[in-house]
Amino acid sequence: MPRPSARTLLAAVLGASLALNLVLGGLLLWRPGQPNRAARGFDRMVGRIEAALPEPDRPRFREVLATERDRYAGALTAMRAASAEVDAVMRRTPTIRRRCASRCRNGPIG
């Protein structure tokens, strides 16, 4: 079997490098940024569930949420108030914020 020339090996290495750079560049471009602070918690969860549902089931899902809103409105308000408290503590305590940011995949808890 003939041995590949230096030019062929260089072309293969440069091609592989280019392919790897394109893949890594694509990952950087498509990587989601910080989640929208307004759309977090329950609203974010609902959005993710809705996105995972087949299109024909989405209107029914929204309808059930609207119908049942009275049942969970109090708990949702309490959860949002607690979330605001957590945010306030995190702002006052930078060490906690750094620890949470380094341990949590999506940044600070919330």
3D architecture notes:
The protein has 110 residues and is mostly helical. It contains four helices and no strands. The longest helix has 35 residues, at 58-92. The mean pLDDT is 81.
Percent of residues in helices comes to over 70%
- What's the tally of helices? 4
Report the β-strand fraction as a percent range.
under 5%
| Major sheet description | none
The average pLDDT is 81
Radius of gyration: 24 Å
Q: What structural class do the secondary elements suggest?
A: mainly alpha
The residue ranges in which pLDDT falls below 50 over 5 or more consecutive positions are none
Taken from the alpha-carbon principal axes, the silhouette is elongated
Primary descriptors:
110 residues, mainly alpha, 0% strand
Brief write-up:
The protein is mainly α.
Write the topology of this structure:
Blueprint: H1 6-30, H2 42-52, H3 58-92, H4 94-103
